[in-house]
Amino acid sequence: MPRYACRQYLDSLARLGDVEAIPRFEEISARLRRSTRWELVAVPGLIPDDVFFRHLANRRLPVTDWLHKPEEADYIVEPDVFHDFFGHVPLLFEPVYADYLQEYGLGGLKALELDALGILARLYWYTIEFGLVVERSGLRAYGTGLLSSKGELAYCVESQSPRRMHFDLLRIMRTEYRIDRFQDSYFVIDSFEQLLRETRPDFTPLYARLARLPGYAPDADVGDDALFQGVTET
Ligand code: HBI
Ligand code: FE
Question: Whole-model pTM above 0.90?
Answer without folding.
Answer: yes
